[in-house]
Fold Sugar kinase.
Amino acid sequence: MGKIVTFGEIMLRLAPNGYYRFVQAQELGATYGGGEANVAVSLANYGMDAAFVTKLPKHDIGQAAVNSLRQFGVDTSYITRGGNRVGIYFLEKGASQRPSKVIYDRAGSAIATASSEDFDWSTIFEGAEWFHFTGITPALGDNVAAICLEACKAAKAKGVTISCDLNYRKNLWSKEKAGQVMAGLMEYVDVCIANEADADDVFGIKAENTDVTGGKLSHEGYKEVAKKLADRFGFSKVTITLRGSISANDNNWAAMLYDGNDYYFSKNYLVHIVDRVGGGDSFGAGLIYACVNKYAPQDALEFAVAASCLKHSIEGDFNQVSVDEVKKLAGGDGSGRVQR
Amino acid sequence: MGKIVTFGEIMLRLAPNGYYRFVQAQELGATYGGGEANVAVSLANYGMDAAFVTKLPKHDIGQAAVNSLRQFGVDTSYITRGGNRVGIYFLEKGASQRPSKVIYDRAGSAIATASSEDFDWSTIFEGAEWFHFTGITPALGDNVAAICLEACKAAKAKGVTISCDLNYRKNLWSKEKAGQVMAGLMEYVDVCIANEADADDVFGIKAENTDVTGGKLSHEGYKEVAKKLADRFGFSKVTITLRGSISANDNNWAAMLYDGNDYYFSKNYLVHIVDRVGGGDSFGAGLIYACVNKYAPQDALEFAVAASCLKHSIEGDFNQVSVDEVKKLAGGDGSGRVQR
Amino acid sequence: MGKIVTFGEIMLRLAPNGYYRFVQAQELGATYGGGEANVAVSLANYGMDAAFVTKLPKHDIGQAAVNSLRQFGVDTSYITRGGNRVGIYFLEKGASQRPSKVIYDRAGSAIATASSEDFDWSTIFEGAEWFHFTGITPALGDNVAAICLEACKAAKAKGVTISCDLNYRKNLWSKEKAGQVMAGLMEYVDVCIANEADADDVFGIKAENTDVTGGKLSHEGYKEVAKKLADRFGFSKVTITLRGSISANDNNWAAMLYDGNDYYFSKNYLVHIVDRVGGGDSFGAGLIYACVNKYAPQDALEFAVAASCLKHSIEGDFNQVSVDEVKKLAGGDGSGRVQR
Amino acid sequence: MGKIVTFGEIMLRLAPNGYYRFVQAQELGATYGGGEANVAVSLANYGMDAAFVTKLPKHDIGQAAVNSLRQFGVDTSYITRGGNRVGIYFLEKGASQRPSKVIYDRAGSAIATASSEDFDWSTIFEGAEWFHFTGITPALGDNVAAICLEACKAAKAKGVTISCDLNYRKNLWSKEKAGQVMAGLMEYVDVCIANEADADDVFGIKAENTDVTGGKLSHEGYKEVAKKLADRFGFSKVTITLRGSISANDNNWAAMLYDGNDYYFSKNYLVHIVDRVGGGDSFGAGLIYACVNKYAPQDALEFAVAASCLKHSIEGDFNQVSVDEVKKLAGGDGSGRVQR
Amino acid sequence: MGKIVTFGEIMLRLAPNGYYRFVQAQELGATYGGGEANVAVSLANYGMDAAFVTKLPKHDIGQAAVNSLRQFGVDTSYITRGGNRVGIYFLEKGASQRPSKVIYDRAGSAIATASSEDFDWSTIFEGAEWFHFTGITPALGDNVAAICLEACKAAKAKGVTISCDLNYRKNLWSKEKAGQVMAGLMEYVDVCIANEADADDVFGIKAENTDVTGGKLSHEGYKEVAKKLADRFGFSKVTITLRGSISANDNNWAAMLYDGNDYYFSKNYLVHIVDRVGGGDSFGAGLIYACVNKYAPQDALEFAVAASCLKHSIEGDFNQVSVDEVKKLAGGDGSGRVQR
Amino acid sequence: MGKIVTFGEIMLRLAPNGYYRFVQAQELGATYGGGEANVAVSLANYGMDAAFVTKLPKHDIGQAAVNSLRQFGVDTSYITRGGNRVGIYFLEKGASQRPSKVIYDRAGSAIATASSEDFDWSTIFEGAEWFHFTGITPALGDNVAAICLEACKAAKAKGVTISCDLNYRKNLWSKEKAGQVMAGLMEYVDVCIANEADADDVFGIKAENTDVTGGKLSHEGYKEVAKKLADRFGFSKVTITLRGSISANDNNWAAMLYDGNDYYFSKNYLVHIVDRVGGGDSFGAGLIYACVNKYAPQDALEFAVAASCLKHSIEGDFNQVSVDEVKKLAGGDGSGRVQR
């Protein structure tokens, strides 16, 4: 199998321990994460040849970000070193009725101030089979959106499959700007990944009978969403994750897949959350793994949902699970009995 | 709006991390808390001008207690410095069927050995709008009960509204003693706050069809309790929190309010507990905030219940939430979705 | 009451904090535990005279294992010092659908390489009333199985009651080997303890209509299992714990007891798990306590189940609860209300 | 005595525990600090009425910065809330021959992007006696240099004494730019504070026979430096701290003071370092305290040096010592015997 | 060899991690210690049969204190359970010129409120060879002084050797009171242990040419002190530890012994301090070990000094070293080379 | 430049935090290290292409060892996966007169039970320039010694330079066995690295006038040692590190180099130790770096000594320093001034 390339920002994630609020914390857990980096680590953990492309400063914080990826076997040789800072996000874990809270401090990061010359896509895509990015990357700035477009073109030129997770972030850009920029990129995308709110936020495509905040999702309504997305942009596959948020501790988790012909729905998992950040990314990684390994649609969906179900039980952005663990859960064993 | 004054003891709280038992702990989390201090911090977090009155030793542990209040903006300028020790309570967090456990080591604390000359109530209540204390304060000793009475009289003389949380503590005094002393103070109190057991413990006023230990509470029965309290002491408002304890991890949480005319019941919340100590105090603070800001009865009750619902998700005695967070929950959004 | 002797291995338990996976951990909690050691500590916590017999190296890690037992009052004077290493097990705590994971690194431990001369059973059983071991001890090697047999004979000769927890460990021996060796030991055993899978694994005695992995247990089916065990080996009592695993966080927990005449079933507890390792051992310790104190069968069973229910709320292998705490839960108070 | 006002930036300080390097850290200690904030906290710890002026975002990280100041009694009521981020600095503690390392990530902070309208100096200086800033503040940008100039003018207009610590930071501006901007501000300054390198870096005034890197300082040479500074800018007092760096663990620490007439040299302390960041600021705070309290020159110098000697034994930017502790050391007791 | 009995208070020791000051600490290390308990643990670590006598509450904090002793093999069977609280001391570790700081919170502890009936000395001294107490025990109150006298009489009646460490604590009693009470006890004491200041504080016997605070001790002057003590009270041995405090990190450490005939001086050690609390106690334990094992005077002194030198490198009150480790150092190997 | 290959064991290192002794530790820091792995990481940190060859189990602890190497850029692609366990060493950090203590638990590790088929040296050495191993590797067993010999032969066949650090470990083999096996390997070795004791331990070649335990080393005596080693085995270079141990905290550190013609002595550093494990390995890595980069003998020696001097300031086995940092120190700047 060929190399899988992802492109985006990796941030320093600073989080109080346990359930402490920001104003209580004297210690912050320091890990690294970001949509596309999370996908790369997850794929490397599945034994894939995964490369993550970004720009990071030459200083030790930049180096620590590189090391966090290398540790799990991600190919970091295409990372450009330069720029001034590593983007940061502060994460406060929610509990019960109190939601998790994210404060972004990512403006001016190395990747957000990168330019076209920083990346040689033709070299990067040599031997590549798949390219993945999310809606966060073009949202970092017009320069990054332009780089993203160049990457898509280069990938397409080499016959590389392209997936995109819409991943709308309201603090990075408006819905209007997002819709306009993303539409331009979608023409290169084969596989579209979205959560229960993205299609509405980015393209104004809304599920009927659904109240995302209230945690009530109409699975039927999402068929229509998937179809509209596929019809508009010609995606070969559309997948939508369906999170039903009961509380900060407990969520329902499922997904659907539309392959242009049929609609597939996964099992639903009731997850007791350890850390839900990166849940969507772990779904994307599971889906890419399944696609590259030619799983049938229902199997691919179940693999991706089981993978991301497990992510909710793992600290940090990165999904630290193996193919065997995912398969065991997808195969029906979610009893959590001790493995000796 | 005027100043809100609370009076009582702030203790050093020593708690093993996570779910470790006392006999397993080599480290103890060191924070500070106590009924009336908790109310003051919560009000300061809502942007109120809140002052906490107590006596604390001049040494560094006393100073650390002062700092813990100042940190959140509480006015500590009326705290008298002197005496020998800071009261301590040891807290072991329960889980599942194992209850949380509190060991008090508060005898001989600076406030418990204070005398009338330590406090100049006339100065303290200048510009004040509200005075709050709980049943713990007079229980600290006859001297403190006398000081409390002086405070009530001084407050009343200045037209300050007085609230009292009955807060019965069986290890501090007998039900008989409590009933007698508290009755003398109630004549000055406008707003009475109680939990599902207090009215019975202190004044022998019991709800019918209720099994507090079993977690089964009859809401109807508490109407009668509230009415009897109001009738006996002439309270303008009586509120009763209704905790249905399913396990050390999961509780039902609601409250009622009686304003002499009508009975109001709040929404019920199923809370997954991070730390339930200070839950009642956070209700009191919410109620005071709502009263001072002239909320209608149902709104005041919902604000207080939502505020205290959130407290259960927060480590330490102090309720670290903002007015916006409380309003969001009271307004119906308890899904715990990540706030980015 | 006489001394209670247990014999087996105590290991160094190395576990990442919280829910971190092995590959994420830079710190490992270091405690000690093992089936029979856990029983001894639990009994010492109940005020019993409990002695744990094993072999441990003379170095500081061996000493730390001894200290961990002494700390809770276990008699360690029969522990032979010598050999090269302390057995180790690595424990990763599971959450939600992700199971806990144990990696054993116990080969070559001091006890696994012990010989008959290391233990003077005649001295050890002086004044003893009860002897307990589990199926793990003979599984450590033929030499240890032989020592175990000597212990059983010496115990029997002194009229000491013997209990055995079948405790099958597939990584230590095959089902065939286990069945053969254990059968030889069972002839000395009075009280047999098993979990929902042991009887099948060791002796091929299987409950009907039961899916252990799926968490569906037929209580009726276990009557048959208990009876078959009692009939085959002449046990005076057979107890079977019945764990219904909903997820790594939530389990149903109950047990049955067969005394040759009647079948007793305990209450069922829905437990929210802090640490489930040692759950079975805490049941065994509760049962032994109840037997030695001559509880009636249903009371003995309820005590043992309540004791082990509480264990699930406690970090580490050792059950850190008192007789009063167990009785309070067995008596019906599982509401988890704060004890002040 | 009047209020003491300081103005500048307070940053989030992120530091690995102990001697871990950045690339090894999974946890970062999160405290707050910055030259002028450090001075304000130190003065508040001496019982002074100290106010710190800055701009901080409205979000929780900004609030935590405010709380860190309030905790120690600093008046934070003049802090303007707004802007996007809190400046950050990463600190890695050195040991032996390995130096401590600072990585700044402060561009774009709220204070660096502040404008004149954010501060009402006339109100701020009401009742003030002293104004202090350091060379870092004008280095944050031309806008901040302009605000600083406004502050100086407003202070002067009210007869407030002004002190400035030259504090040259080469990563914020060039020596040329620094020299030019600082010269403009010096005309308002009464008391100049510098370290062994600042006068050279900012104004090209260099001590003879001195090798700062090699830790060899010529005390005589610094007399000339002080005199030149005083002569050029008309300072009433010039103080220069004299750090002789033996290693990252051990430093010599002393200072001199020139009051236009005489040169005073302090005792020298050999300090074994816990945390040397903020050492210069603690000297400044000690000097201001001594001046406001009208100490004689030698006494003022000894107080300031003893205060800053103690700072080296304290974790974090803030000097957590009392007047009594400083006086005890200045009085000659540096034996470190336990105080019971 | 016979049992060694020590009698006194064991306190909960609460200490910030590393060099944090009290006002900075959110976590406190929780260990247990006290003069006589420290001696008992040290002796148990040398393989001696050591029993510690005190009174401790029945609650979990009292139990944790018992466990802390049992863990290291101390016989806790003579500890009376009852009373209300465990005495506490807060410890802040000093560094460089900043001294360590102790805040006592021990009034009202179980042992301080004990009465004669709590201890059956006749049983306790069965099989005993040595009895040890320090000047802290009688300082806890007249009741405890009386119990201490009863213990001395009972010990003497059984021919048990008695040692006393003068251990003057100014916050517990005045020099006058100490001198008077201690004189009454000294008549039973065989071996007197003192530090460089005790003889002066308690009995007004002062070394010439010595400045304890300045760290300058005249060894000659202490000969006179020892002789006067021996002459006045008829001690068979007097030992005086000689701490020369250079800073909170570095001390000189030596001792002298007078056996009525000759004066012996030990080697001097320059110690780099990890934790100096319990240093004197570890000297006492070393001396008792050496006496019980019939070491020659110089050897006994060197053992005791080496033992206590090592204590300075160990966290907590208890000296965690073996006889072999002490002998190795006393024998001259203090190079600190790694032992593999 | 070509690849640098090292071969040996990487162990799980378990160490109490700070200066806690083994019997006090409830937490163990978990890192990975071993002589040759340490060299590989250090070289990777210098930007070299470094590969580490070993055998590690397939389970998660084995994976964590792999990750610890990958994190710093070491090529782990030649590591064979299999076997049962990861070797462990327990490390207790010494202080002052108390030495650090190592307890090995490495028997039966995957590499110790490896066989010739596990490694394809011909492939491994493709493109290699240097091969490094230490005396620990052949000491793991005759099988590993044989593999080591095969590696040497394969390396020699490809013209790869070979270095060996004698690294005698008395708990792994006797001096006789070591001398015999090592002599057979030395014939392939070009560069010999030893510490102040190795040549004596392994080959009976002893420095005159030297007392290693006492920390007194005769530099002259080591000239003779180096010459004898070079003469006997035909080494092109012999280097000897010269550690003068003052205490567990303070060491003198220097080295010599003999190139067959001249004797070179480095500067001496007085190091204040953070963690001295891996000090020798960091010297080896520095030397290899300098040789591969064709440094002149004195420069190579100074680089290696400065590199290893810095290692003593860094936690863990791995030397986390850059070429720039080493050069700065070798160039004379050891003042430890903060780098901003």
Remarks:
- The interface with chain B takes residues 14, 21-23, 25-31, 59-61, 63-64, 67, 84-86, 88, 90, 92, 101, 103, 105, 107-108 of chain E (CB under 8 Å).
- The longest strand of chain E covers residues 237-245.
- The radius of gyration of chain E is 19 Å.
